[in-house]
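Hello,

Our lab assistant flagged a job as stuck in the queue for most of the afternoon. It eventually completed. Since we weren't sure the result was trustworthy after the delay, we are filing this so someone can double-check. Below is the sequence as submitted and the structure that was eventually returned. Let us know if re-running is recommended.
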Amino acid sequence: MKKCIKQIKSQLLKTISEIDEYKWMLCRNPETDFTRNREWSFEDAMLSILHMGCESTGRELLRYFDFGRKKDIPTVSSFAQRKNQILPEAFQFLFHQVTESVCRRKIYKGFRLLACDGSDINIPHNPNDRTTYFQSIPSTKGFNQMHLNALYDLFGGFYQDAAIQPARSENEYLTACKIILHLQKSNILFTNYNERKKKIMEYKKENGTLILGSVEEMRMFANGHITINHDNVKHLVYNGTSLPLGYRCALEFIMLDLNNLKDITIKNDQNFKSVNGIIYSQDGEKLIFCPNGTRVFPRMEIQQQ
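-- returned structure --
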């Protein structure tokens, strides 16, 4: 364990030192920010922010600069200025660089098993920020919170990604779907949404093919809860349980609004079938949905297939 901790710390310091060489890409004003390193270097600013604990900013700076033994202690106001010059993406980039360097991904039957859960984080009191402010009783002071959604690799034993939301607009389910779309390989994602642990998405996209494994996933996509560029989807495959009878599934497919969709494939469904990318009732009597530019086959040809 000690060896692992030292390895992570060493990689963290090394990565921050490397980022310092192209810090202009991660600053709000590349031409002026951190051009002079009299009190604050970009490396010191990053490390001091990561070093922060629960005490006042002044005390934390005293500790970071070893009470002035090695270097003069900057003022709190100068720290605030430097902190505001760094883009949030700098820490996101640092997180991913260190994680990719020291953490090994482990596969279970061709998939990575990932768990996503959220936690509320208290932040400084600010009643003017309505996106984070809560007041249980009118006469009380109230409090502010952010919501942290973390993605954890169950086999690898490390955090893969994270997203922060204002507590009043938190949506763990939607955030989990957005996070996993950034991953390249096939993944199985678990969450405790609705207070129970369940698989919510097995997502694959290859050569413009979107595979949906349940009615729930279809509705998520139709309602915009799975964010993906619709123009990139050319082939849609549904391999879940049987779809509901009637035209309900047709309405959901129409809601997908896939302008470049060429064909739809339904596998092992009791109520519907797909013929050359077109959805029909199982008996071939009713045409349910036809993607743009797809030729509709005659009834006799359908029944033969």
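-- support follow-up --
The delay was a queue issue, not a problem with the job. The result is valid. Residues 193-204, 297-304 have pLDDT under 50 and may be disordered. Residues 238 and 266 are 5 Å apart (CA to CA).
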